[in-house]
Amino acid sequence: MAKFAHLCVLAVCVALAQSAAVDKAKIKFKVSGRNLIDKDTAGTSDPYYEVFYSNDGGQSKTKIGRSDTVNDQENPDWGNTFEFDFDRRKNPYWYFHVYDEDNLREDDNVGRVWINVADFVDKGQVVNANLDKGGYLTVKSADSSATPKTGAAGIPLPPGTPDSQTLRFKLSATNLPTKDDVGFIPGKSDPYVIITSTEGLTGKEKDVGRTATVAGTRNPSWGDVLTFQWNKNKDQRLHFKIYDDDTLREDDKLGQGWIEVNDFVAKGQTYTLILPKRGSLILTKA
User: Fold this and answer.
1) Which one, out of 96, 186, 200, 233, has a CA that is 20 to 30 A from the CA of 135?
2) Taking the alpha carbons of 173, 176, 179, 185 in that order, is the dihedral positive or negative?
3) What is the pLDDT of residues 75-84, one digit of tens each?
4) pLDDT for 201-219, tens place per residue?
5) Quick check: 253 and 233 in contact, CB under 8 A?
6) Which DSSP string corresponds to 201-233?
7) Cα separation of 49 and 234, whole Å?
8) Distance CA 105, CA 270 (A)
């Protein structure tokens, strides 16, 4: 019995050691793109990306590098490898901006996304991230000593988390862009959010809900309680599209982004999504 108890304690210790979060690491990564939007009217896009990092929630960016251009390809596998010194305490994010290279005009914007580097590490150094324009990036370890998983397994869920539940959450945002400027005088938008969901990276979008409009602010806090039926065994993603409510013209787009619902649950039902254009969207349990 004592031997059995000793083995149980040892197994628990090993499990805890395996689940311990990595706080610092030198990361080598490479990137692939899938289903990128085609910006060329004749022919196929010639995509490349630039990658940056931020330690201040996206307020500033420092360039890591630029990939090669892959010609005539909407599903590129870039061969470039980049290195990054990960420090969890600095809360680092990567910012990827994908372009279509053009010789005779300005390069087209194919899509952008922010990735929390801690999430990348906690998922076994592989993550799939939806771009704001369409398609997605796969970022994975390029270190031969690492053993990245074949698919993003997700951040570990807290002990005792049920397999499914109805999530109730509220939204707020900070530092949104403004669209109602008058000359050099900055205006204040009247933002609202439309929320849809998918199963998988390219699944059909289904309506989840819409917030009310909050007038005259760049830092709205919507009082609406939104609900979503979550199942941990499905690759569920929420798509947030933020607009400026205008009565006399088409509503302006203020930003959009995606989250994996499993990540929201794993983080205690609180999540900060850095928007590709500007600002952040915050989800909190209601």
Assistant:
1) 233
2) positive
3) 999 999 999 9
4) 999 999 999 999 999 999 9
5) no
6) TTPPPEEEEEPPP--S-SS-B--PPEEEEEETT
7) 30
8) 42
Name the helix (H) or strand (E) containing 237.
strand 236-244
Phi/psi of residue 90, each to 5°? -85, -5
Name the maximum alpha-carbon separation found in the chain. Answer: 80
User: Which pair of structure tokens corresponds to residue 76?
Assistant: 């590129």
All domains of the chain, ordered by start, with CATH? 24-141 (2.60.40.150), 164-285 (2.60.40.150)
* DSSP secondary structure of 24-84: EEEEEEEEEEES-----SSS---EEEEEEEESSTTSS-EEEEEPPP-SS-SS-B----EEE
Q: 111 φ, ψ to 5°?
A: 160, 160
d(CA 242, CA 253): 6
Residue 201 backbone zone (phi > 0: left; psi -120 to 50: alpha; other: beta): alpha
Residues 256-270 have a mean pLDDT of: 97
DSSP string of 107-165?
PEEEEEEEEEHHHHHHTTSEEEEE-SSSSEEEEEE--TTS---SS---SPPPTT--SEE
Looking at residue 89, the DSSP 8-state letter turns out to be G
